[in-house]
Amino acid sequence: MCLTEAHCGTDLGMLRTRAEPGPDGSHLLSGTKIFISAGEHDMAENILHLVLARLPDAPEGTRGISLFLVPKFLPDADGGVGERNGIQAGSIEHKMGIHGNATCVINLDQARGWLIGEPHRGLQAMFVMMNSARLGVGMQSLGLAEIAQQQAVAYAKDRLQSRSAQGAVQPGKPADPIIVHADVRRMLLTGKAYVEAGRALTSWTALMIDQAQHHPDVAVRARCEALMALLTPVVKAFLTDNAFETTNLAVQVFGGHGYIREWGVEQYVRDARINMIYEGTNGIQALDLLGRKVLSDGGARLKLFGEEIGAFLQAQGGEPRMAEFVGPLAKLLEATSALTGEIGVRARENPDEVGAASVPYLRIVGHLCFGWMWARMARVAFAKLDAEERGDGFYVAKLATARFYFAKLMPETAMHIRAIKAGAEPLMALDAELF
Ligand SMILES: Cc1cc2nc3c(=O)[nH]c(=O)nc-3n(C[C@H](O)[C@H](O)[C@H](O)COP(=O)(O)OP(=O)(O)OC[C@H]3O[C@@H](n4cnc5c(N)ncnc54)[C@H](O)[C@@H]3O)c2cc1C
Q: Is 1 near ligand 1, meaning CB less than 6 Å away?
């Protein structure tokens, strides 16, 4: 996917790569792209680059960008791999992580390309791929968090340091395993709660995708499409932020050994870091959520999502054991709806209010999603425990983790609500010169 240029990443409206019409319906592209993932490699016969460029008559800004298919090797007469096209890797970036992926500067020198879709509507076409890539990046982070978590748990059960505050747990050994310590448990449970809720949320999102594409009822398809659009920036940003925290906590569980390359966990932090930046930075995801997905349609998509959670909450009426989850989740749903209205009103007076609120707002919506997922998992756990299914503690662990999540992680939302209510003024008051 060749979008980024040295002077433009987020603001693609500024891109300069040119596409001149050729005699045979193809185009000749010239320009330089940077940071192109897997921009060059020999793992496939050919590479088909999807390149954003401007046609000669293109209007300024994002409305003048077109999408082209530019193969590394041009097709020969039989459609096989023919001569080399004028698209080359200029260099490979030296970077913090994801060393298995060659991130390249890509030079286009009269490279032949073919227009995809309509002229000047390339960004819209690229967004089809980018929305799916954003979900993919969320999954990439979930995978990294999972492996970091598995290794941290194994290490915490093995590493002997100090005695439990309750007295020796393994008196025959020189010390107790560090998993006895409350603070180590805080780190491990944070990772566990984030990973398992992330898995549940992405499974639910996948179901929405399937229904948006294949459900026989057109109204259901539209509803699922709207929910997916709302939650794509949440899956991208909330999961990647949480994965960075989880991998970072895994290093902390390993102590000094976590910082030493030989153990492997430091790599997860480096690899997880990029996911908060590419496919649109997490700051941009937050603006997309609050500005484009919530405020621009007067909260209609958010209302749909609220209805999903509301239906679940209502269905728990007959189960008193669910009160500990239903109460806080209902309160957060209500608070989010009220807060959204408040931001909307303020944004009419001052457009900076949206950017000032967006990142904490995304975390609140992320917790709304995770709170819902944990409440759903708790509901299933109660039922399975009643039925005495599985004797291996699986559902006991689910319930304990749900309780940890509601007690220790979800309250982060109270801080964010307060920070959002403080508005844009504390952010914008300082003159740039005085930083
Ligand atoms: C390893 C790696 C692989 C990549 N792979 C690809 C690839 O395959 N194809 C490709 O095309 N690109 C790729 N990229 C580029 C990546 O998508 C961009 O780096 C990213 O979109 C950010 O653009 P930028 O680096 O120009 O940062 P900028 O756009 O300069 O942003 C800098 C900071 O300003 C913030 N900012 C910018 N505008 C706003 C705004 N309006 N409101 C609030 N904050 C704002 C950003 O959030 C960020 O924090 C890759 C990058 C890396 C590092």
A: yes
